[in-house]
Amino acid sequence: LARRGRAPASAALSARPAGPGDPGPPRGSGRSPQAGMAAEDEAELSLLECRVCFEPYGPDGQRRPLNLPCGHVLCRGCVGALAGAERQRLECPFCRRLCGPAETSECRPLLQLLELLGPAGGGLASALGRSGGGAAAAAPAGLGLRLCLGGWGSLVNPTGVAACPGSGRLAVAHDGKKRIHVFGPSGFCLRRFGERGDANNDIKYALDVTVTSDGHVVVTDGGDCSVKAFDSEGRGVLAVREGFCLPWGLDAAAKSEVILTDSEAGALYRLAADFQRGELKKCQMIRSRLVSPRAVAVCQSSGAVVVVEHLKARGPSKGSTRVTILSAEMDLIGQMDSFGLNLVFPSRIYATAVAFDREGRVIVTDVYSQAVICLGKPEEFPSFNPLISHGLSYPVGLTYTANNSLVVLDSGDHSVKVYSST
Q1: What digits encode the pLDDT tens for the residues 70-96?
Q2: Global pTM value
Q3: Which InterPro entries is this protein grouped with (predicted)?
Q4: Same domain assignment for residues 231 and 294
Q5: Which residues contact 167 (CB under 8 A, 6 or more apart)?
Q6: Enclosing domain of residue 246
Q7: Exposure pattern of 266-285 as b/e (b: 16+ CB <10 Å)?
């Protein structure tokens, strides 16, 4: 199956090999309104077409979108073509993982988006409850794409991103041979470490990453259910393997502390360590009875914690997510699941990542609409303010840099996208 070529998204992208699903040119300054509208149309269309045959997805027949076990999406026709006449095994064209056609499942987010964007839907802007009025309508905060880095061949199925508070460097966890890539503020890859293997400091499968105030990189490893810390040179300094069922999301807090979720135990932990000496001081459960908690973020000003829980499916539903906000003392401040958010907002939200901005507002990524949405401060939760609605494929990570740039990890095209005020 031949692929059609695409133009690079920006000058930053032109310096790296283009990967599967590279987005079209970003909207930015120096272009006419007509060109910006054309770019928006192209971005919207690229989200709704198979990345192998480039035919648009449809609700029925050969164009119906299917999930592969690895997370990538193909149309039913391409799944059949890749499986061959015997229809026993197929290889994902993006990550090369093998699976059987029977292991595929319907991609409900895309099917729901297709329904919203039908003849009565009016497009992605209508699905998000906005009028299509150019960049100002799509990004009320005045955010523009400043830098796009990574891409297929550099990053493989990335799962987490974090910013170093002091240096502005970005640490990305992914499924490559070396699990952690560190990028400088200009987008140049400075260091790769975290070998894939079974040694003490190797990383089997990185689920999330954070960076402490003194520059230590901390990773949750789903392969051996551990939390591992590395210094700025990539040397392993600490590995905590006892007491966790499945550590998943994590975020750095003050005083060499890390807040992390245990998805299988349904718990929230506070881990304190002397990372310079590689000594664990305390690992304490601070909240229990959560439902499959994954992404977590800590507000640096108030100490509030926000957690994304993945609720179990009921009936034919594929499940939903719940955004839970806790005070620094672990008291419940606010909570709402996908169904409740859908009653308030024009789009059902399935959150995959969460962060606090500089003003203490809760920001989430939504894979249903391929968007980044501000849900407001804890005391006003939930409000609804879309920040980014175009150019994302499958956002799974979110963080803010020290200069308040918004960083989105897009697993759909294996890239990191940095947005700043225009």
Answers
A1: 888 889 888 888 887 766 788 888 888
A2: 0.68
A3: 6-blade_b-propeller_TolB-like, NHL_repeat, TRIM-NHL_E3_ligases, Znf_RING, Znf_RING/FYVE/PHD, Znf_RING_CS
A4: yes
A5: 185, 215
A6: 143-421
A7: bbbbbbebebeeeebeebee
